[in-house]
Amino acid sequence: MIRTFYDEMYDAGGIVRPHYREFARWLGEAPPELLAQRRREADLLFHRAGITFTLYGDEQGTERLIPFDTIPRSIPASEWRVVERGCIQRVKALNMFLADLYHDQRIIKAGIIPAEQVLANEQYQLAMQGLNLHRDLYSHISGVDLVRDGDGTYYVLEDNLRTPSGVSYMLEDRKMMMRLFPELFAAQRIAPIDHYPNLLLDTLKSSSPLDNPSVVVLTPGRFNSAFFEHAFLAREMGVELVEGADLFVRDDRVFMRTTDGPKAVDVIYRRLDDAFLDPLAFNPDSMLGVPGLLSAYRSGNVVLANAIGTGVADDKSVYPFVTDMIRFYLDEEPILKNVPTWQCRKPEELSHVLANLGDLVVKETQGSGGYGMLVGPAATAAEIESFRARLKAKPHAYIAQPTLCLSTCPTFVENGIAPRHIDLRPFVLAGRETRVVPGGLTRVALREGSLVVNSSQGGGTKDTWVVED
Amino acid sequence: MRLSISHETTYHYDDQVRASIQYLRLTPHDSERQQVLSWQLALPRPVRAQIDPFGNILHVLTLDEPHEAIVIGARGQVEIDEKRESEHESQSSLPFLRFTRLTEADEAIRAFAVAQTQKRTDRTALIDMMHALNEHITYTPGATAVDTCAAQAFANRAGVCQDHTHAFLACARSLGVPARYVSGYLYSDSSEHLSSHAWAEAWIDDAWYSFDVTNQLAIPERHLKLAVGLDYLDACPVRGMRRGGGCEQMHAKVVVSPSAPIAVPAAKKKPVPAPMIQVQRQG
């Protein structure tokens, strides 16, 4: 058999990698009935905790359990330290890019990124032009999506600087593993992650110039697919969970309605897209936002985390420039690699993409969640032709990348254990300093051969271990 | 030319409004073309001015005591430099290339823009396009609503200044010309058109040039600019929300008149305190 994928647990010769030895030994000794019983227990516990997620494009609006796999994804600490430095480097550069873009635009003047690429981008927010933010931070919470190619090299697939989600699964997956298999955590040193809510609260507080600012989590409401996470994080941080209607603006200040009367709000961890924040400034049909919020924000009386207008930095059409941003702002070589990307808006790159559609992954520059994406090698001829037509009609709306192999990790499937493709989303918190809790969220594509790990596309999650080696 | 403006907007509600908030873009600022001699807003309560994302002067009026009516008054005098055809600006014009829901260019609009200009983007070509749009979309009050988009007005061939402007923006942007919505006042000796008016500006040769599709004017000699934006929603004089109140009746009265400089001696340039109209009782 020819091995084309990098497996996290086994090396090319089929030998267990050192950082998985302890787990493999335990797995070999554990009776299969016990494992099966623990998996059923996990399902039950997740159901009871209400950890569900609503599937878009499903007419019934079905709430689904995100499948949880009990075989962890493990990363040796020495390897993690490189990934961690790479993520921090990247988020620093992206924050500097945003501060530059909304002020002096040095990177445009230096000819590194074309003006039109960013300024005519829908995600570029005029509301941010010239506005000064505390600590010059725009993306306080970032999710960096990483995958590994055939030789194990880490690549950044995309940056998530708007409202990155999934951290509640990271935390719940760990709680579940510790509850089901405490013996595993006694046998080896696995880096803890349960301090994430504290770090998040600290990050949010440090985003305000005030000494002890009042923080709230703003959710679009219980019909949002990530509502569970919004409620979870508010509870874990011990702050209020609010909807737009719970807040109001008076004289450029934001207040929360409480039974004791209005209470001033200083920091809003908003899990609501820019377009819905203020119906008087953005989408007028938004019933989810707070009328007047933009005026309060621009007056400097409230902090939004993340800031408005971060989408211009994680837009897929801007992604190809991130490595140059790192060189430009930090004068450093990028620690993590970008996936080579063809920009379909360029005619010569478009013709290459059209000629090789069967081998490539094509993505919408504005898309997310794995919707509106073509995986060439897995697509039918009809799907490829439909994408060809879309590409020709709107080339600027697409980018294309080679189909990466994506590493695999052993996963429980119907007939035992089999390798399934995975990715990794570490969560980067930028405040007084920039920090990452060890690991992140590992998503796994449960269908055999599938490279799409998004939970909306039938992906599951795994606990992610950083193991001292 | 010196213009005197008196603009009063009254909102009456069937029921009591519990709370309301309005974004007001009713204050002009000085520019190469216009000099504000005096300006006064009459609001139910004092409000601090701020600058909005487009550089417009914005007042945010929040009322959280129950009220049944809101009266918003604006009045003042502005000197217009009739000879100036364009205005410069240091901010990049590129953000004004993007389409919005109200200015999306559909196939029909794209084809129209290309047919009218042969893809030329100089001022003469855009003036020709302005005339053609005026002919294509007949000025018809009542034919459209405040949320009608460019493509709808273009397809139905009827609309008002807002629709003319949105259609022009869609055409210009589809040709790769940055273009923006202007809200303001127009002095017109005929009473055919509303004095509260909208027109477009397009970025040509590093300056903003005006295109008033409704009046087929490319030189804005009688136009007083209040605010600019990507479309109506960014620039409109009043954008508000309220809780409660039931149905709403809105009355706007605008009087724009030329005032000969000689008739207004310098001493009278001082702002006259406008009557403060109470729409709520305090205390």
From TrEMBL, chain A:
SUPFAM superfamilies, sorted: Glutathione synthetase ATP-binding domain-like
Domain named Circularly permuted ATP-grasp type: residues: 72-445
Gene3D superfamilies, alphabetized: 3.30.1490.270, 3.40.50.11290
Protein name: Circularly permuted ATP-grasp type 2 domain-containing protein
From TrEMBL, chain B:
Gene3D superfamilies: 3.10.620.30
Domain of life according to the entry: Bacteria
Record-linked SUPFAM superfamilies: Cysteine proteinases
Domain called Transglutaminase-like: residue spans: 153-215
The protein's name: Transglutaminase
Organism: Pseudomonas graminis
